[in-house]
Amino acid sequence: MDADFEDLSHDVELISRLKQLYQATLRFEDRIDLANDPAIYDKLSNSDKIKYNLLMSYSLNSMFWMYLRTEGIDPTKHQIKNENDRLKKSMERAKQINDKNTLMPRVDKNAAQRFIRNSLWEPKVVVEKSMEL
């Protein structure tokens, strides 16, 4: 009798986890639909479009990674691992470029001109007196 109850508890736990997976899949699908709205994408800056594209690629690859795991395939021995590594490098490069553009000091041209103009030595005008011969 205890064995039957134990099997039943495993079945209930499995069904509960499958329901959670199904609900998570529906939420993910809703977010993907929202993210694929062309009106939103067109309003993004170039930097944000790069981030968006990298995020979508990485998300899809991660979903495929999970699919392989559910099929019993080791994803570390699959081509998807190389693709994920390539995307990680692209994400790091995009972050470096973004940091370089945002953290790089900017020169205020007008302030620099005033600084240079005020720091230069200007000779005093000497009025020459005409000499009588």
UniProtKB/TrEMBL annotation:
Biological-process GO terms, alphabetical: maturation of 5.8S rRNA; regulation of gene expression
Principal subcellular localization: cytoplasm
Keyword rRNA processing attributed: yes
Alphabetized InterPro entries for the sequence: Exosome-assoc_fac/DNA_repair (IPR011082), Sas10/Utp3/C1D (IPR007146)
Any one GO MF annotation of this record: DNA binding
Compartment(s) of residence: Cytoplasm; Nucleus, Nucleolus; Nucleus
GO cellular component, one term: exosome (RNase complex)
Keyword terms, alphabetized: Cytoplasm, DNA-binding, Nucleus, RNA-binding, rRNA processing
Pfam families: Sas10_Utp3
Its job: Plays a role in the recruitment of the exosome to pre-rRNA to mediate the 3'-5' end processing of the 5.8S rRNA.
Subunit description: Monomer and homodimer.
Family: Belongs to the C1D family.
PANTHER family found in the cross-reference section: NUCLEAR NUCLEIC ACID-BINDING PROTEIN C1D, SUN-COR STEROID HORMONE RECEPTOR CO-REPRESSOR
Protein name, as recorded: Nuclear nucleic acid-binding protein C1D
